[in-house]
Design a protein that fits this description.
145 residues; transcription; 4 helices; globular; DNA-binding; repressor; WH_DNA-bd_sf; Arc Repressor Mutant, subunit A; alpha+beta
Length: 145
């Protein structure tokens, strides 16, 4: 099953206890097709598929899908929240400082001192969020604005 297969996406919605509606399916498919899209980008894709849908409706669907762990919401500093379908693992992200393109980076394994809190203050830590910043290949020759 492809990550964009409508039947597979609908099955995932049902398996999560959600009714399959056109807006839910369209939002889920949009994020699957455009990982790390923000809500406005998702809304643009959904409108191309469904026609008129309010931005608030898109936000509502994104919230429900995130609550059901079908989507993951990431919030890079200085940019709007972005959404992806890759959930259930502790992967990180790399973001271009110039154009904002975002990619997935698998969690470092073996010796990872930055992922071990020196003083967790009684917390039981189950996740570390790391964002790598730099320039993507397309922007490497571009002067910093």
């Amino acid at each position: 099953m492809s990550s964009l297969d409508p039947d597979g996406l609908a099955a995932r919605l049902r398996d999560s206890g959600l009714r399959v509606t056109a807006p839910r399916l369209a939002v889920y498919a949009a994020v699957a097709a455009h990982p790390h899209a923000d809500a406005e980008q998702v809304a643009t894709v959904v409108r191309a598929r469904l026609g008129a849908i309010s931005t608030q409706a898109v936000y509502d669907v994104l919230k429900v899908l995130t609550q059901q762990d079908l989507l993951r919401r990431i919030e890079p500093a200085g940019s709007p929240a972005r959404y992806e379908t890759r959930t259930g693992d502790n992967h990180h992200h790399v973001i271009c400082r110039l154009c904002g393109v975002t990619g997935d980076v698998d969690c470092a394994v073996n010796v990872t001192p930055c992922l071990e809190a020196s003083n967790p203050q009684g917390f039981v830590i189950d996740e570390a969020e790391v964002t790598y910043w730099g320039r993507c290949p397309s922007c490497q020759g571009t002067a910093t604005p």
